[in-house]
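Hello,

Our lab assistant flagged a job as stuck in the queue for most of the afternoon. It eventually completed. Since we weren't sure the result was trustworthy after the delay, we are filing this so someone can double-check. Below is the sequence as submitted and the structure that was eventually returned. Let us know if re-running is recommended.
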Amino acid sequence: MGIEVGGLLGLIWLIIVIWAIVKVAKSPAGGLAKLLWILVLLFFPLIGLIVWLLLGPKG
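-- returned structure --
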């Protein structure tokens, strides 16, 4: 049962990170800012997502 729960949580986390990347890509921020946010989200998913939610582009 633990593997199924871990897999489901991993899938949910992946969906959240993909959602954040899509939001960054659609934001009015400049190209370099978008690239940097996406790289942060990819390489540091937990910290990157928290920082993006607090400081990232709004809209």
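-- support follow-up --
The delay was a queue issue, not a problem with the job. The result is valid. The CA atoms of residues 21 and 38 lie 6 Å apart. The mean pLDDT is 84.
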